[in-house]
């Protein structure tokens, strides 16, 4: 899942997060600022946007790659992005309406790759190293690199630095 509202709730939310969640969130924010291509809007046409996702999933060996699709959240009130399953079990990325961009699609696609790798079924337990743990970050980094060269290394460097800073503080 991605997305934290700006405003007063943000600091509280950050403090309440697991170290991995916080590190990923902060690293992602930095990398999106450093690599403008990550915030490039996806094509308005869902079919065309889904092609990118299918290509990524196929590259990662996901068995349902060809059936995957990406949509914007139908409900305007949804303030985050998430993965899901379509009516016939198709892997889906449901993106925040204001985050219809390549970087967010890569984030949700990386969850699908990691969940498949960890043998996670819809609604099942999160992967053993956490939803936004190191294995997720590795998949996400590989996808980000296909959008903007170096973005993956930048993400992993910021992620590790944040985890190290947290360890030092705690
Ligand atoms: Zn996520």
Describe this structure in words.
The chain has one domain (9-169). The chain starts with 8 loop residues before the first helix and ends with a helix. The chain is built from 6 helices and 3 strands. By secondary structure, the chain is mostly helical. It has helices at residues 9-16, 19-34, 46-59, 102-117, 134-147, 151-169, and strands at residues 69-72, 82-85, 91-95. A 3-stranded mixed beta sheet has the order 1-3-2. Zinc ion (ZN) is lined by residues 1-2, 107, 111, 132.
Q: Could you list some keywords that capture this structure?
A:
170 residues, mainly alpha, 3-stranded mixed sheet, globular, binds zinc ion
What can be said about this structure in brief?
The protein is mainly α and 170 residues long.
Domain module count = 1
Instruction: Label the overall shape.
Output: globular
Return Rg in Å.
Answer: 15 Å
List unreliable stretches of 5+ residues. none
What sequence of helices (H) and strands (E) makes up the elements?
HHHEEEHHH
Bound molecules: zinc ion
Q: Treating each run of at least 4 consecutive H or I residues as one helix, how many helices? A: 6
Structural class: mainly alpha
The tally of strands reads 3
Strand order of the largest sheet: 1-3-2
- Biggest β-sheet: count, sense, barrel? 3 strands, mixed
Rounded average pLDDT: 91
- How much helix is in the residues? 40-55%
Portion in strands: 5-15%
Through-space gap between termini: 25 Å
